[in-house]
Hints:
It is built from six helices and no strands. It has helices spanning 3-18, 21-44, 55-67, 83-98, 103-111, 113-122. The chain is elongated and about 65 Å long.
Amino acid sequence: MDVQAYYQQYYQQYYQEYFNVPTIITGIALAVLGIIGLWRMFEKAGLAGWKSIIPLYSTYCLFEITFGEGKGWMFLLMMIPCVGFIVNIFLAGKTARAFGKGGLFAVGLYFLPMLFWLILGLGQSVYQKPVA
């Protein structure tokens, strides 16, 4: 067996295992649920919901919601290796606090953001201005 045939067989098996219809449908469903949750979260915070579907702008707006007006630029810190990990932890904590939730909710926001965005967006939580 030559190298080309080996890789062709390997990638064909890989794509059959991981890129099947149930996987694609699950991915699309999770993306739609995340968009719905983030859209409603933005609306609760007084922003237009469509801002949640524009990739970098939605992160900028999320920082504006959680850290306060004029601090949206801090999303650029997430692009720095190792620093982004820590900034994301702070983002989860401040987002939970901005919607009146506690530390365990922040842990949930960090590990399962799409689910917890849905809880924030569709639940009873009320947006409060960021706490300094």
